[in-house]
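Supplementary Methods S3. Complex input for the 1,3-dihydroxyacetonephosphate-bound model.
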Amino acid sequence: MQELAFAEKNLTKRGFLDIDVDPTLDLVAEIEKLKKEKNAIILAHYYQESEIQDIADYIGDSLGLSQQAANTDADIIVFAGVHFMAETAKMLSPSKKVLLPDLKAGCSLADSCPPHIFRKFKEKYPDHVVVSYINCTAELKTLTDICCTSTNAVQIIESIPKDKGIIFAPDRNLGAYLKKKTGRDLVLWNGTCMVHEIFSHEKITKLQMRFPDAKFIAHPECEAHILDMADYVGSTSGLLKYSLETDAKDFIVATEPGIIHQMEKASPEKNFHPAPPANTCACNECPHMKRNTMEKLYLCMKYEQPEIILPEWIIKEGVASIDRMLEVSAKAGL
Ligand code: 13P
Ligand code: SF4
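Predicted complex, serialized as structure tokens:
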């Protein structure tokens, strides 16, 4: 009890449970035990570290994770991902306890679109439909007509009558890609993903010279000049599927490198090269996704903290935009 009170006090400041974990503990076994004891399910995004992916009950992209969160009969959803993903799970399953190992696992896209500023922006286009990439805050979803992910974005845009104007937030790169793909004239919010906006055209070209037969595959959050170089553009699950089904030996992958763990598992005979960023850092990891660790996952399951708590009005007003997205996706067979 005393330990829990200490945990609560520490959590407020740090966003995670800062309690020492015995380094000799078998975390995999402990987490498996906690899953059974508490009827908990671990949902993990492809950008999580490999160990977390390997212990998850479901690994997927943002659409798959939302579908799982909406349909699970577990009592506790442990979200190994970032804050907006755990919020989405809470909105879809409000009666369940949703845990996030580190509350500070945020997202630069979600941060780029503060709801009070977006509200004013939206007022300038009163007849427009608002489509928001799911990478946004729960409050932004209350100002959104329909959400999308990178897997269903084309179908969501195409589900909107042609005579309707559309605001697309918050990712300007995905928005520009959708304009090109659908021929629709979208009003774009000026947000970007800090991971996908820093790939280097020059360094990728050099890598292509080293592996001339490699397929270059990219996530649509990348900038247009990177997408223009790509043999295939798609969501994380799309990239994984393409790498499995395409007959090439080498792939240059322009997205967060966490996905490469699944690519290597699915196609052990192929080589996957992370696309290099323009900065001096050699890797392109998402610092938010990588805030989650096995230790934090274990502690959060043990103490059932940190928990995602959302005001009722946000759940009520925001969930409609996610429900609409899931309906259109189901009709499109996604
Ligand atoms: P998807 O996995 O849905 O493609 O999204 C990528 C991403 O950046 C999630 O934060
Ligand atoms: Fe957000 Fe980009 Fe990290 Fe995804 S990879 S959580 S979009 S910052």
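Residues 47, 82, 107-109, 135, 193-195, 256, 286, 288-289 surround iron/sulfur cluster (ligand 2) (CB under 6 Å). Residues 312-331 form the longest helix (20 residues).
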